[in-house]
Predict the structure of PucR family transcriptional regulator.
Amino acid sequence: MRLTDLDLTEAQVAELSDVLRGRLPDVAAEAVGEIETQLPVLVRPHDPRYAVFLTQAVQQGIGQFVELLTGGDGRLEELRDFYRDLGVLIAEEGIAQETWQAGFRVSTGVAINRLTEAVGSLPGVTPTAVAKVAQDVLYYLEQITGATAEGYADARSAGDVLHHRRKLLELLISDDPSPDAIRRLAVDAGWAVPRTVAAVALSLRADAVVLRPGVPAGALAGLHLPDPCLIIPDPAGPGRRDRLAAELKDWTAAVGPTVPVTQAGLSLRWARRTLDLAARGDLDADRPVHAGDHAMPLVLSHGAEMMEHLTATLLAPLTRLRRSRELMETLLRCLQTGFNASEVAAILHMHPQTIRYRMRHLDEAFGPAIRDPDRNLEYQAAVTYRLQIDALSDPSGS
């Protein structure tokens, strides 16, 4: 039903539409307040996500109803998807079915009382029109309650797998998990243990319109944690960044370094540190922020652990070459001089032809990345750090 279906003039419909839309924020706020008062089990002060989810659920439900009623673009199927997701979340959080159904009853009562008050306050609107609005509120909220029940039932039927996957994620992000323990729990969780993983730290955007991010295929979701996260398998695959950006569009997300599966906790620590930088406005967070793209700010903020990871990652090609220390010293001078063979030769007191020979080895080992001016500082920092650490461990230079 829409207002145009009632026995109202065009002017009355326009006036009533304005009134209902104007009352929407107050109605939603009152409904949230009543739910929090009558059902304190739904209020978890230690986890701010709950306040966000509760407010979203009420605002989406009442707001979309008003849009449908007033002839606006009410996207009912999109709303049903939202409430299916809510049902999944409720089940995953262990909230009893009776509790969330009671929350809907409270919200429905407030909506009926306030919206019918708004309709009935206008001159010329008959009691029959008011009753029809109340009836339509009930029917509409029955639809979204049904969608929530569908999501709830689906999540409960997959409860055992979800339980094992949560346990597996918690094991992976713990300190020094054993490979055997990971393999055993992965079998119960139906998760193929990958060679590498990356952790993703998440923070819900203020303007988000969904309750959860899309979870990439094969990922483990830690959305039940106070600081939600994901574990992504084999994150360096082709097209992975673009897919992740699309799936996490409603979240501010930071992706930690790619690491062996037993070091997922390390990746998550750096993902969360990167997320902190994004929250402070130091990084552009319109898309998922990758820790590896911002190594220097992270190193400056958090010290040697990230420096070790940066060094190991950037300088890995040198470990496969003979006389790697000499090549590392040459690489540092090349980075400092813009790969000018004559200048490097003068600094190292060597023949330019020898330097050009070494440069060819470096180009073959590293590819074009070594000459990328945007990464010059990172490579210089990594080489300088490695030479200093090597000098401390072996002062003779042998």
